[in-house]
Amino acid sequence: MRMTKTKWFLPAFCVVLGLAVLTAQWIGGNAHGGLVSLALLSGFGVLILVGGRSETVRGLRGDGRDERFRMIDVRATAFAGTVLILVLSGTWLVELARGHDGSPYGELMAVGGVTYLAAIAFMRWRS
């Protein structure tokens, strides 16, 4: 059984991420905001942990994944990626129009584009 198939993975990940955000915000001088972030992420982790009867929650957690949910996940990831590309493109253009260099939006789009091309090449090579 893979680690991500256990119902404890995502809730534990939420707490660890919350602790990382708390640490970063604490270092940045915003301990209160870090505690709020930790509470929100930990609360989401608890909701995921106790929502075990829901097929959607079980699919997100990993312990209820089947072929159907994997396809839903791939489509949702593609949709989120498309929205992110559109938002990055728009913010990049706004920054250029303001006379700025477009950072960091251009760099993020470059990373996404190179990753996409590398994934296409790798998947084509494997098939």
Describe it.
This protein is mainly alpha-helical and 127 residues long. The protein has two domains: 1-65, no CATH class; 66-127. Helix content is 78%, strand content 0%. It contains five helices and no strands. The longest helix has 31 residues, at 67-97. The mean pLDDT is 91.
Unreliable stretches: none
**Mean pLDDT over the residues:** 91
Query: Which percent band covers the strand fraction?
Result: under 5%
Q: Helix share of residues?
A: over 70%
Q: How many structurally independent domains?
A: 2
Q: Based on the structure, what is the oligomeric state of the protein chains?
A: single chain
How large, in whole angstroms, is the Cα Rg?
19 Å
Summarize the biggest pleated sheet.
none
Distance between the termini: 26 Å
CA-based shape = flat
Q: Helix count?
A: 5
Give the number of DSSP strands: 0
**Which secondary-structure class do the elements indicate?**
mainly alpha
String of helices and strands: HHHHH
